[in-house]
């Protein structure tokens, strides 16, 4: 980054098992090799409070109502934005985030059926106006993603929500990728869908193409040179 310049917030989103964590780790490797200042976080989590909330939200044995679930996500988010994201961005760092409030819109509004106006209002308080510079939306059928997710570990509380729930989440993410939806949800910033099918290296190349075309400083860093063939 050029000294004095604001950093970036780049978010990775998608259904369970879409490959967000894998692609984030690969991008971290590219940024490190190119000496680009960066930090990586995940939601919920990233702070002491957020990590405690994450353990509760994902515990398969937890029983949490839909509204309480949404508010717990918001509490974790508010702490992360205040303590980590804004300071890093203001310092000129590229911040990579595994999920942000687009997941709340998909999981709690579409998936759980909570009122959109209530969730958006609560989210405004949690984010305090922080808008992603880009959201990379990894697209994959929900059933394929869940199969991937269950192979890597036992299902967490969210993953156990049932196929109908995850189908609603998938449909919501597809709607979020449309210009019409984005034009009425400016708080989400630009959202670019990226096909998450295929092996990790193939998806990595697609992600790098999007990022280097979008951001001049990443294009100048020649991130694609380290891509795995």
Describe the fold and architecture:
The chain is built from 10 helices and 5 strands; from the N terminus they run βαβααβααβαααβαα. The longest helix is centred in the middle third of the chain and has 25 residues, at 66-90. The chain has helices at residues 20-33, 48-58, 66-90, 101-111, 116-127, 142-152, 163-176, 179-183, 200-214, 216-220; strands at 8-14, 38-42, 94-98, 134-139, 191-195. The chain has 229 residues and is of the alpha/beta class. It has a 5-stranded parallel β-sheet with strand order 2-3-1-4-5, with helices on both faces. The protein has one domain: Rossmann fold (3-Layer(aba) Sandwich). It is globular and about 45 Å long.
